[in-house]
Structures are given as C-alpha cells and as structure tokens.
C-alpha cells in the first residue's frame, strides 16, 4: 500500500514537470485612493471654470447689446470715411447693415485692406485705444450703424467686469482673424488666399444667421480683393475663373455661391488654426444668438472668428 502511494505521488510529480507549474495567484495591487478623486476633481474644476467663463461672456454680450440698442442709429453712404461722416471719429459703432473695411495707405499711393467689417462687427475699439486710426475705416456699401457717442464710452463699458471680459474676447477674435489672413498671404498661393477669404466671410455670416445657405453678397471689387489678399487684379480674375470652372465657388455680379464647401475648405487649409477651447466658447455664445438681439457682437472663429 505504501509503495502504491509512493508510485502515485511520483507519477503526479512527473505530470507537473511535464505540463509546467500551475498559475500563480499574485496579490492584487490597488491604486492610491486619492488618484481617481484628484483627476475627477481637476476635470470638474476645469468644466466649472469654462461654464463660468461662458456665463460671464454671455452677460457681457447682453450688456453691450443693450447699450447699443439704446443708442442712436445713423446711415452712411458707400465709399465714405467713417471718421468724417457725422463726427464718428471717437465713437464706438456696431454695424447693423452693410460692409466696411479698415485700410492702410502708403506713401506710394497704394492701399492695403487689412480688415473687413461685416454686419454685426464692432468698429472703434482700436480707435479709442489708440491702436488704429478711425480715419482709415471706409464704407464699402451704404451702412447702418448704432453709435455710442462718448469719448469715455470704453471706460464706462470696461467698468463692468463681464463687459470688459467680452470686449477682450472680441479683440482676441479679431486678432485671430488678422493672424489667419497674414498666414494665408504668407503661406498660401492665390487660390488658397481667395478660398480663405470666401470661407471666412461665409462662416461669419452663417454663424450670425445673416445667411442660411451657401450664397451671400460680396461688395468687394476685384481691385479691392487684390488689396485685401496681396494679389494683382489680373491674378484675382484668373483665380476666380479657375475656381468657377472647377465648380468650387462662383462669384458673379457681387454674388458668391459656394459650390463645394469641402474642396474650398481644403484649399483654405484652415484645420487646426483655432483652439478647441476657443471654438467651444464661441459656439456656445453664437448658438443662442439672433441677428436682432446682438448676434453681430460675436465675430466668428476662423475655421474658425469671429
């Protein structure tokens, strides 16, 4: 009996050596109890901060919109300098209808357009801050504007923290627009520059709900487009014909029709030019806006602005 037991134990040992040892049961390791809590807390704080920022910006937008709605309106004809029309040199203006542009004139007589104001844009923040001269704003069409006529208008507005934050946000959006234009002029060919311009105007008007489709009026002449994009009139004309022939975009009699938004966006190479956080904040502001309730106070984010 003993011998049989020994033989059984021996055979069992040989089987273990043939198939290898059985699975080991290692002790479980637990994550530090505070790690998950700290991550969740950080995420919650970040979300709370963004929601607070959105709330402050929305409050500032409403305050500024109410200020303009209580202000007088005036109309200015096309091709007029805004500063010499009705004494608007030191005024803060919101464009209700029409287009205008900011330009820079050089000693050789040439003029460069450095910004284009669409319905809803603010004009005069930089003039009050003395960063740009108001006499360099030219109307492209007849414009209707709401005017805050006061030398200390900006000081009054900046006394409100939400309004000051919103004005800073507006200036940041305009700076992003200027950066996109500079990048396009420096790095893109003529087709890319023109695509950037068409897409920027389309996006800004669409987000403010001044248009609902793929067509909008463009009151810029070909020489003015050239001044805006750093191109000759001949080059502008050639590019417009090529984009029309390829059925990407058509510009005829000051009417723009976007025929292929995907290819237009590809030509403009706009992806990644606006941070996701700025995009989200901008979208949260524009989603609830209406053209008659201060929607124009939200310049688009160049895609992404205002």
Observed structural traits:
306 residues, alpha+beta, Arc Repressor Mutant, subunit A, four-stranded antiparallel beta sheet, three-stranded antiparallel beta sheet, 10 helices, disordered N terminus, disordered C terminus
CATH superfamily of the domain at 189-268, by name, is Winged helix-like DNA-binding domain superfamily/Winged helix DNA-binding domain
Strand order of the largest sheet: 1-7-2-5
Mean pLDDT level: 77
Helix count, per DSSP? Answer: 10
pLDDT under 50 segments (min length 5)? Answer: 1-7, 15-19, 271-306
* Helical coverage, percent range: 40-55%
CATH class annotation of the domain at 189-268: Mainly Alpha
- The CATH topology label of the domain at 189-268 is Arc Repressor Mutant, subunit A
How is the biggest beta sheet arranged? 4 strands, antiparallel
Strand content: 5-15%
Strand-pairing-aware structural class: alpha+beta
Reading the helices and strands in chain order gives: HHEEEEEHEEHHHEHHEEHH
- CATH architecture of the domain at 189-268, by name, is Orthogonal Bundle
Walkthrough of the structure:
The chain is an alpha+beta fold. The protein has a domain at 189-268: Arc Repressor Mutant, subunit A (Orthogonal Bundle). It has ten helices and ten strands. The strands form three sheets. The protein has a four-stranded antiparallel sheet with strand order 1-7-2-5. It has a three-stranded antiparallel sheet with strand order 4-3-6. It is globular and about 50 Å long. The model is unreliable at 1-7, 15-19 and 271-306 (pLDDT under 50).
């Amino acid at each position: 009996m003993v011998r049989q037991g020994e033989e059984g134990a021996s055979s069992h040992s040989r089987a273990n050596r043939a198939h290898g040892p059985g699975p080991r049961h290692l002790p479980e390791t637990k994550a530090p109890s505070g790690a998950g809590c700290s991550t969740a807390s950080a995420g919650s704080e970040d979300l709370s901060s963004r929601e607070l920022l959105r709330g402050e910006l929305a409050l500032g937008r409403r305050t500024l919109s109410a200020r303009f709605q209580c202000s007088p309106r005036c109309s200015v004809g096309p091709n007029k300098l805004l500063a010499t029309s009705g004494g608007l040199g030191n005024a803060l203006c919101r464009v209700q209808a029409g287009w205008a542009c900011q330009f820079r004139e050089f000693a050789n007589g040439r003029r460069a357009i450095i910004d284009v104001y669409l319905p809803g844009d603010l004009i005069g923040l930089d003039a009050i801050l003395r960063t740009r001269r108001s006499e360099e704003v030219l109307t492209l069409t007849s414009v209707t504007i709401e005017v805050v006529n006061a030398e200390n208008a900006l000081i009054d507005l900046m006394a409100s923290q939400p309004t000051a934050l919103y004005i800073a946000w507006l200036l940041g959006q305009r700076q992003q627009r200027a950066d996109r234009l500079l990048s396009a002029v420096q790095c893109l060919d003529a087709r890319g520059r023109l695509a950037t311009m068409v897409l920027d105007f389309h996006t800004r008007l669409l987000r403010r709900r001044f248009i609902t489709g793929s067509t909008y009026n463009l009151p810029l002449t070909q020489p003015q487009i050239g001044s805006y994009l750093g191109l000759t009139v001949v080059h502008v004309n050639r590019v417009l014909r090529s984009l029309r022939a390829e059925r990407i975009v058509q510009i005829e009699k000051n009417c723009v029709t976007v025929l292929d938004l995907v290819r237009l966006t590809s030509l403009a190479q706009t992806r990644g030019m606006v941070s996701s956080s700025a995009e989200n904040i901008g979208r949260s502001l524009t989603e609830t806006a209406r053209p008659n309730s201060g929607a124009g106070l939200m310049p688009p984010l160049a895609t992404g602005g205002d």
